[in-house]
Automatic annotation (TrEMBL):
Assigned protein family: Belongs to the Mediator complex subunit 16 family.
Transmembrane segments: none
InterPro entries in the record: MED16_bridge, Mediator_Med16
Compartments in which it is found: Nucleus
PANTHER family cross-referenced by the UniProt entry: MEDIATOR OF RNA POLYMERASE II TRANSCRIPTION SUBUNIT 16, THYROID HORMONE RECEPTOR-ASSOCIATED PROTEIN-RELATED
GO biological process: one example: positive regulation of DNA-templated transcription
Protein name in the entry: Mediator complex subunit 16
Length: 212
């Protein structure tokens, strides 16, 4: 019954205009999270929604730092441009950078350094989701799962692109990874895996990892 109620809430919310959805999105996530916490079986879904809420909040904060280089000559904000490029389904993070105007994503190095802990959280979330892939399969008994939420995964991909750009400006702000191979560039690999997951959300997880 709780799942049906949450489904009705999602259905009603998705019928609203884009502007309304954007304005009330955080409140919508909070309500849905609270509903799932009413049931012992809903705690995992509530935890995933809490992670999405945190991800959305960080995304909003990061994007608020972006400023067009020349406001009058842009039809889209830098954040909108990033969202548009991500929606094209590009799997190579460095190719994504080629479609963006670097000046619009420049942030003061001191500001970037203050964001390092949030940047680390984003990277840790991406890795944790990928680690869960082999044990996670689409199922009718899982009405919500962060790994199957294309919108959440695309927000995460956007954040990885920003981290990639900002790491070029301030390497010290980059997330720290424990690697068995010192030459491994983790961000492009994580971005590619998440991109392939978005392209086929029901793809067998072991195949996804195996092809990487």
């Amino acid at each position: 019954m709780l799942d049906a109620l949450c489904d009705r809430l999602s259905e009603s919310f998705n019928k609203q205009s884009t502007a309304v959805q954007q304005f009330f999105f955080e409140r919508y996530l909070c309500i849905k999270t609270s509903l799932y916490r009413l049931s012992a079986q809903g705690h995992n879904k509530a935890n995933d929604l809490t992670l999405f809420l945190m991800l959305h909040s960080i995304s909003t904060a990061f994007k608020s730092l972006l400023r067009p280089s020349e406001m009058s000559s842009h039809d889209k904000s830098p954040a909108d441009s990033l969202t548009g490029v991500i929606a094209e389904g590009q799997c190579d993070i460095d190719n994504v950078l080629m479609h963006l105007e670097a000046k619009e994503f420049t942030v003061e190095p001191s500001t970037l350094q203050s964001l390092q802990q949030l940047i680390q959280w984003i990277a840790d979330l991406a890795l944790n989701l990928l680690v869960k892939l082999p044990d996670s399969r689409p199922s009718a008994t899982k009405p919500y799962e962060l790994l199957r939420d294309v919108k959440a995964l695309n927000v995460l991909r956007e954040m990885l692109v920003l981290i990639r750009i900002w790491g070029l400006l301030r390497p010290a702000c980059l997330p720290v990874f424990t690697k068995s191979d010192a030459t491994l560039d983790v961000l492009p690999l994580v971005f590619r895996l998440l991109s392939r997951l978005v392209q086929n959300i029901s793809e067998p997880d072991d195949t996804l990892i195996g092809k990487s």
